[in-house]
Design brief:
16-stranded antiparallel β-sheet; 24 helices; 16 strands; 40% helix; 19% strand; transmembrane helix; transmembrane; DUF3352 domain-containing protein
Length: 614
C-alpha cells in the first residue's frame, strides 16, 4: 500500500471548516486544468441554443465548468445512450431515462457542497443548465449558477436547504432565470450584481477561448488568463495547491514519468537519509484513538453534514490536546523540545514551493477553453489553451508523432509517440520534481545522473529524434508481479543508432538494469526493451498500426500532432485482467479505443481526447 505524506506525518488540522472552503475555491481555479490531463472528461458547456450560465456570472470569473443537459445536435440522446452502455456508471448515476441526468447532476452538486439538497425540492424548478465557477471577490469564492424555471419555487426550495445547512454554510439569490448558490447570501448577491454590470458571456477572452474548441457539447470548460496569478496569490496560505498547478498530463507521458520518478526517488532518499542521520526513519505511531479518527476520515464524503462537523471537532480537539501550545509531544518527552508548530509549518510549506519555471508559467498563463461532446459513438474532450497545461512545452516538437506510432505492430494495445524538441532533456530533468526539497537545477541534474548514469546530453542522445513506447497484451503481468524479462513492453527510437546505444550502455551499467535494456537496431534507429522476441516484432512487424482501422479512426485528426497516446481497450481481455475486480467486466467490454493528441497552434496547444465505445 502506498504511503502518503498524511500517513507518514499526521498533522494537526487548524481551523478546519473555513480553510477547507477556501481551499476548495482556489482548487477550482485549477480544477479545469486537471480535467485536461486526468481524463476526467465528465459528462457535465456552452451550447449554441438557449441561455447559458455564463450570462449569470461576472466577466472576471476565474474558472468555469458548465453543464448543458439539453445541448444541440441530438447530443442529449447521445449522452444518455453512451452512459447507459456502461452498466455500473448508469447504475451509480441512477440513469433510467434522459431526465435522470438532471437528478444526477443536482445530487452531485449537493454531495460536493455538503448540504442537504433533496431532488424533490429541485425537480419542479431546476432547468437543464448549470455551472460551477470561481469568482474573485475579496478572496476567490466557489459558486454555482443553476437555471431556474420557477423563481418562487426555487426560493422556497433553496430556503429549506439553507435551513438544513445552518449559518454561514449556504447562501443564495434567485432572479433573471438563474439561482446563484454560494457560501453566504452576501456572496451570492454580489456575484449577481457584478454579472449585471458585465457578464462572462460577453467577455472577450471567454468568447475566444471557448469558441476555439469546435462544436458545443454537454460541457464547457474555461480558465481565465488571470487564473494563474490568482493561484500564485494564495500559494503562501495553501502551499499544497502547488500540486494542482502541475500538469496531470505527465501521467500520459512515459518520458516525463520515468524522469520524474528517477529524480524524485533520488531526492527523497537523500532527504530521508539526512533527517534520519543515515538510519531508518521511524514513522510516528498512532494511538488507537487517533487511528479510529483517521479511519473515520477515510469515509468523510459518506458522512452527513452533522457527522462531518462532529468529526472535524473531534479531530481539532484531539490535536489541540496532544499538540497544544507549550504541550510536549507526549508524556515521555516532557524533557525534550516542545512541539514547534510554526517551524513545522515553515518546513512543510518549503517542501511544496512552486518551482520558479512553474511560477513564471502561471504568471504568463494565457487561459483555456474546452468542450466535451458526445458524438460518433463516443465522447470527446477538446481543449485549446496555454501550453503550460499540457506539460509538453519544450519537451516535444514537430509533427512526427503519428508516423512514429504507425510503424508499430498492429497488435499494440498501449502506445505513446512524440518527436523531441531541441534541448528537451535538461528541461525535463530540472522541471521533473515539484517537491523541490530546496533543490537547485544543478542538484536535480546531479540526482538524475546518480540515479541513471546519464547526463542531460546522454539522455538527449538516448531519446533520438522520435520515440514510440509500445505494449501488447500480456504486459499487464508486470503490474502485479514486477518487471520480468518476458514482459511485452518496448521503446522504438529513431536517430543515430551508435549514439543511442552508447547512452543505453550507461543505463545498463546500473544495478539490476542490464537485463531490461536489451536492444536491436532497426533501419532508422534502435528498439529497446526486456523481451528479445518482442523486440523482433517491433523491428519487422507483419502488420502495423498504420493499417489498423481502429487506430486510423482514433487519430484521424492528429496528423500534425507533436504527441499522441493510443489505447486499444477492446483488444482481448488485457484491460479486464489489468483492472481485476475493480471494474465490472461489462463496463470494460463496452469500450473500444482511447486516443489523446496534442497539436501546437501558434502560442497555444490543442488537446483532443476521444473515448470510443464498441
Amino acid at each position: 500500500m502506498a504511503v502518503t505524506l498524511a500517513d507518514a506525518v499526521p498533522l494537526p488540522p487548524t481551523e478546519p471548516r473555513r480553510p477547507r472552503r477556501r481551499a476548495a475555491a482556489i482548487a477550482g481555479i485549477v480544477g479545469v486544468a486537471a480535467v485536461v490531463g486526468g481524463g476526467a472528461w465528465a459528462w457535465q458547456v456552452w451550447a449554441a441554443q438557449g441561455p447559458q450560465p455564463a450570462e449569470a456570472l461576472p466577466a472576471d470569473t476565474l474558472a468555469y465548468v458548465a453543464v448543458d443537459l439539453d445541448p444541440p445536435g441530438g447530443q442529449k440522446v447521445a449522452a444518455y445512450r453512451a452512459l447507459k452502455r456502461i452498466p455500473s456508471l448508469a447504475k451509480e448515476l441512477g440513469i433510467g431515462s434522459q431526465d435522470d441526468l438532471r437528478k444526477s447532476l443536482v445530487e452531485s452538486i449537493a454531495e460536493d457542497g455538503g448540504c442537504d439538497l433533496p431532488w424533490r425540492e429541485v425537480e419542479d424548478w431546476a432547468g437543464d443548465r448549470g455551472a460551477l465557477a470561481v469568482v474573485p471577490l475579496e478572496e476567490p469564492a466557489l459558486v454555482v449558477a443553476l437555471q431556474v424555471s420557477d423563481p418562487d419555487g426555487a426560493r422556497r426550495g433553496l430556503a429549506k436547504v439553507a435551513d438544513s445547512c445552518g449559518d454561514d454554510e449556504f447562501g443564495f439569490t434567485v432572479g433573471d432565470g438563474w439561482a446563484i448558490l454560494a457560501e453566504t447570501d452576501e456572496i451570492a448577491e454580489q456575484v449577481r450584481a457584478d454579472a449585471k454590470d458585465a457578464d462572462l458571456a460577453g467577455d472577450q477572452d471567454f468568447k475566444e477561448l471557448t469558441g476555439a474548441t469546435g462544436d458545443p457539447g454537454v460541457v464547457t470548460l474555461y480558465a481565465a488568463p488571470e487564473a494563474g496569478q490568482a493561484l500564485l496569490d494564495v500559494n503562501e496560505e495553501f502551499p499544497f495547491l502547488a500540486f494542482a498547478a502541475y500538469s496531470p498530463l505527465s501521467s500520459l507521458d512515459p518520458v516525463s514519468a520515468l524522469i520524474t520518478s528517477a529524480t524524485f526517488l533520488s531526492e527523497f532518499s537523500e532527504v530521508i537519509d539526512v533527517e534520519a542521520g543515515g538510519g531508518e526513519v521511524e514513522m510516528p505511531e498512532m494511538s488507537p484513538e487517533e487511528e479510529a479518527l483517521w479511519g473515520r476520515m477515510d469515509n468523510y464524503d459518506e458522512l452527513t453534514r452533522a457527522e462531518q462537523k462532529e468529526l472535524d471537532k473531534e479531530l481539532a480537539d484531539f490535536y489541540e490536546e496532544k499538540y497544544g501550545e507549550d504541550q510536549p509531544l507526549d508524556a515521555e518527552s516532557s524533557d525534550e523540545e516542545s512541539f514547534d508548530e510554526e517551524s513545522l509549518d515553515d518546513e512543510f510549506e518549503a517542501m511544496f514551493e512552486i518551482p520558479e519555471e512553474t511560477r513564471k508559467a502561471l504568471e504568463d498563463f494565457s487561459g483555456l477553453g474546452g468542450s466535451a461532446r458526445f458524438d460518433h459513438g463516443g465522447v470527446e474532450l477538446e481543449v485549446v489553451g496555454d501550453p503550460f497545461l499540457t506539460g509538453y512545452e519544450g519537451m516535444y516538437d514537430g509533427t512526427a508523432a503519428r508516423d512514429a506510432l504507425a510503424v508499430l505492430p498492429a497488435d499494440t494495445v498501449v502506445a505513446f509517440g512524440a518527436g523531441f524538441a531541441d534541448g528537451w532533456a535538461e528541461r525535463a530533468i530540472t522541471r521533473g520534481s515539484l517537491l523541490s526539497f530546496d533543490s537547485s537545477e544543478a542538484d536535480l541534474i546531479s540526482s538524475f545522473e546518480d540515479a541513471t548514469g546519464l547526463t542531460p546530453g546522454d539522455l538527449e542522445a538516448l531519446g533520438g529524434d522520435t520515440v514510440a513506447f509500445a505494449a501488447k497484451a500480456g504486459f499487464e503481468k508486470a503490474i502485479d508481479h514486477g518487471p520480468a524479462k518476458d514482459v511485452t513492453i518496448a521503446a522504438r527510437v529513431t536517430g543515430d543508432p551508435a549514439k543511442i546505444e552508447a547512452a543505453l550502455a550507461k543505463v545498463a551499467a546500473k544495478k539490476n538494469v542490464a537485463d531490461f535494456a536489451s536492444s536491436v537496431r532497426t533501419d532508422d534507429g534502435v528498439v529497446i526493451g526486456p523481451n528479445p522476441s518482442y523486440l523482433a516484432e517491433l523491428v519487422d512487424p507483419d502488420e502495423t498500426l498504420g493499417g489498423s482501422d481502429g487506430f486510423e479512426d482514433a487519430v484521424s485528426d492528429a496528423k500534425d500532432a507533436l504527441a499522441i497516446a493510443y489505447v486499444d481497450l477492446g483488444a482481448g481481455h488485457w484491460l479486464r485482467d489489468l483492472v481485476g475486480g475493480e471494474v465490472e467486466a461489462a463496463d470494460v467490454d463496452a469500450l473500444s479505443t482511447f486516443a489523446m493528441s496534442v497539436v501546437a497552434e501558434g502560442d497555444q496547444y490543442r488537446y483532443v481526447a476521444r473515448l470510443a465505445f464498441e
